[in-house]
Design goal:
The structure is a single chain. The chain has 14 helices and no strands. It is mainly α and about 300 residues long. The protein folds into two domains: about 100 residues, Farnesyl Diphosphate Synthase, CATH 1.10.600.10; about 170 residues, Orthogonal Bundle (Farnesyl Diphosphate Synthase), CATH 1.10.600.10. It is globular, with a radius of gyration of 19 Å. The N terminus is likely disordered.
């Protein structure tokens, strides 16, 4: 019998109403991108109703494409030009004339659920910062960046999930918490790309230098720095959690699972001895299944 660690993630079926082969192919591509590049996100999404699920994949594929453009090895000017082209594709999609394969699904989802364009444009502004900004001096500056690249995702997905009045600020908070989790998980990977997202004011507070970070130094200073950041993010998750009750009942479990799994990444960083340079913190499939089960039972994972 295969262990739970070797169990592949399920491939959820697409909705099967009368649609063109082009649209079905577009949604399939979006699903495959989510499954390949973000197993935590994909695992949480499969608990949504089919139409919501595939719309979430379309949003993911749009955002992932912007992120991939910003992270290529091309010169900065070429990446910025490509991002401008992706913005033009977005505008064409909202005008009812999608040209890119991913945009076919994104335009369909935007029309079905009334997804606003403004958060998508803000997200592209955040992607441009990944090209042009490689340091953040203060925590406030970092929070603004997290809004652009992650809270915007919450604003794009909220119409899909369905929500009551007052829910959006919680979605903004959750997006920031998830992005900060990604930043802590990817400290080493970002450093190899010449990026430091940890605020310079926090490095100075703990006496940890950029040179230390680029050399992958893990000592008491770095451990205390990471403990400080992790506790800060845990507070963010606590602030975001009440918003789940303001979501559509069919979406609550998915968001609870996503919140719980991302929060577990912080625990894994701790288990790894705060080594974010040579070890990647991830949530094993056994823990994902347990988290999903607890969410369905109405317990806090």
């Amino acid at each position: 019998m295969a262990s739970l660690h070797s169990v592949p993630l399920p491939v959820a079926p697409l909705a099967g109403d009368d649609e063109s082969p082009e649209l079905e192919s577009s949604y399939r591509l979006c699903r495959d991108m989510a499954k390949k590049h973000s197993k935590t996100f994909y695992f949480a999404s499969i608990f949504l109703p089919p139409e919501k699920r595939r719309a979430i994949w379309a949003v993911y594929a749009f955002c992932r494409t912007a992120d991939d453009i910003a992270d290529t090895r091309q010169p900065a000017g070429e990446r910025l030009a490509t991002l401008d082209g992706w913005r033009d594709q977005l505008i064409a999609a909202y005008a009812g004339k999608p040209r890119d394969t991913i945009m076919v699904a994104f335009a369909d989802s935007a029309a079905r659920f009334g997804i606003p364009i403004e958060p998508a444009l803000d997200l592209l502004r955040g992607a441009r910062r990944d090209v042009t900004v490689r340091r953040y001096d203060t925590y406030e500056e970092l929070l603004e960046y997290c809004y652009l690249v992650a809270s915007t995702v919450g604003l794009l997905t909220s119409p899909i999930l369905g929500y009551e009045e007052g829910a959006l600020p919680y979605g903004v908070a959750l997006g920031r918490a998830m992005q900060m989790t990604n930043i802590l998980r990817d400290v080493g990977e970002d450093a190899r790309m010449g990026r430091i997202y940890l605020p310079a004011e926090d490095l100075r507070r703990f006496g940890y230098t950029e040179a230390d970070l680029f050399s992958g130094t893990i000592d008491e200073r770095f451990v205390e720095l990471m403990k400080f950041q992790i506790e800060r993010v845990r507070v963010m998750y606590k602030e975001a959690a009440p918003g789940i009750a303001l979501l559509s009942p069919s979406s609550r479990q998915t968001v609870q699972i996503a919140l719980s799994l991302y929060r577990r990444i912080l625990e894994q960083i701790e288990r790894n001895g705060y080594d974010v340079f040579t070890r990647r913190a991830y949530v094993p499939i056994r823990a994902k299944l347990l988290t999903a089960t607890m969410a369905f039972l109405g317990r806090r994972p």
